[in-house]
Amino acid sequence: MSPTRCKARILCACHINHGQDFQVRVKWEEGTVALWDNRVTAHTAISDYNVHNPQEGLRHGFRITTLADKPTGASGLGSTW
């Protein structure tokens, strides 16, 4: 693939990634738990809350990595990383 076409595909993927069609927004309440499979997910916290407001409170994030089978692609090919 030419460098120009490669760059165009990367920009397209980044545009899709930042679009709202594939986003999940969690309304955090006391006791809320959300899980993502980090092998296929890009995630980020959105700072749309006031950490100094007791009504909104603090959010805590923990990263848990499991020891499991190596991920495989849709065609059954093994991961190279």
From TrEMBL:
Q: Which positions fall inside the TauD/TfdA-like domain?
A: 20-64
Q: Does the keyword Zinc apply?
A: no
Cofactor(s) needed: Fe(2+)
InterPro entries in the cross-refs = AtsK-like (IPR051323), TauD-like_sf (IPR042098), TauD/TfdA-like (IPR003819)
Bilayer-spanning residue ranges: none
Q: Which Pfam families has this protein been placed in? A: TauD
Q: Which GO terms describe its cellular component?
A: cytoplasm
Presence of keyword Metal-binding: yes
For this UniProt record, the keywords arranged alphabetically read as follows:
Dioxygenase, Iron, Metal-binding, Oxidoreductase
Q: Which domain of life is it from?
A: Eukaryota
Any one GO molecular-function label of the UniProt entry = metal ion binding
Record-stated family: Belongs to the TfdA dioxygenase family.
**The protein's name:** TauD/TfdA-like domain-containing protein
